[in-house]
Amino acid sequence: MLNTFHFLNSSLLAKLEVGEHYYWKIGGLSLHGQIFITSWVVCALLIGVAFLASRKVERIPSGLQNLMEYALDFIRDLAKDQIGEKEYRPWVPFVGTLFLFIFVSNWAGALVPWKLFEIPHGELVAPTNDINTTVALALLTSLAYFYAGFKKRGLGYFARYIEPTPILLPINILEDFTKPLSLSFRLFGNILADELAVGVLVLLVPLFVPLPLMLLGLFTSAIQALIFATLAAAYIGEAMEGH
Amino acid sequence: MNPTVASASVIAAALAIGLAAIGPGIGQGNAAGQAVEGIARQPEAEGKIRGTLLLSLAFMEALTIYGLVVALVLLFANPFA
Question: Could you tell me the residue ranges of all domains in chain A?
């Protein structure tokens, strides 16, 4: 119905598209190509920065190494707060990957002028602007906390479902489904809402007026990355703690 | 698309986002008010209060965003179209 708002404009800047994808057909599957391209860019950026920062490690950090050590400290504190002093160390890489990937994708979607790169259909957007990416991240989180729970408590992990009383069994089972659902929808909705709001404002007034909203968008994207990582760590911590 | 379905979808989208904004609006107002009160009582705790407030505001905002997702699905990817 309202698939595109092309009729309102024809300029390059102000185009609003939802649900338009650049499909790659591989076997019987059709993949959202633009998401893959931007994800690879984000991955390459993260790996490149990490490589450059750790190539020549010095005792007194400076420049890039300093930045990455700050990021590591931040993530370690986050994991320590949520998972606990004793257990947090093995989970720092996972939580850190989630945080950095989501953070860099969100900011890449907002800061990089993707519209300058023409692709045959649809347009390049942040990887987190696609529900498939966020669902994948959320399901990984689910797997991670199940694994953490089983590894720590064995079959005793299932006792969690009948605590505090067996009456709550259905609700406890339901929780396993609502956790990834809310994680993925929260991230996807926030990023999509942000890009849409900026898009609508750009459509109405192309110059300067959308800037405050873009700044707000940068802020919310950072907060959403923080929330995703915090919640993932909290779920992992919760699965590991015994009663 | 059937015009009845189209108009119903547009109204439903408006209701979804509008109603979903009420609860979190009240909640965020409460939270912000309490935070201001907390800071007024104990100005030295401002940093900690601000961090917690932002995090919880983002959680509440997520509820409106769920409504927005439903509205967007109705408008752009309507399953009944």
Answer: 23-241
The contacts of residue A106 (CB under 8 Å, 6+ apart) are: A126, A128, A191, A221, A222, A224, A225
Give per-residue pLDDT as tens, B14-46: 999 999 999 999 999 999 999 999 999 999 998
3 state SS of A4: strand
**Can you tell me the distance from the alpha carbon of A75 to that of A77, in angstroms, rounded to the nearest whole number?**
5
CA distance A189 to chain B (A): 5
State how far residue A154 is from chain B, nearest Cα, in angstroms: 32
Residues 6+ apart with CB under 8 A from B75: A1, A2, A18, B9, B10, B13
With CA atoms as reference, the chain A residue closest to B77 would be A19
Q: Which residues of A touch B59 (CB under 8 A)?
A: 227
For A107-122, write each residue's pLDDT tens digit. 988 888 777 777 777 7
What is the residue whose two structure tokens read 């405050």?
A212
Probe site for chain A from B10, B53, B55, B69 (most A CB atoms < 10 A): B69
Q: In this model, does residue A15 exceed pLDDT 60?
A: no
**Cβ-defined contact of B69 to A1 (cutoff 8 Å):** no
- What value does the mean pLDDT of chain A take? 84
Residues of B in contact with A77 (CB under 8 A): none
Q: What b/e string do you get for A90-107 counting C-beta neighbours within 10 Å, with b at 16 or more? A: ebbebbbebbbbbbbbbb
Assess contact for B21 and B67: CB atoms under 8 A: yes
ipTM of the complex: 0.71
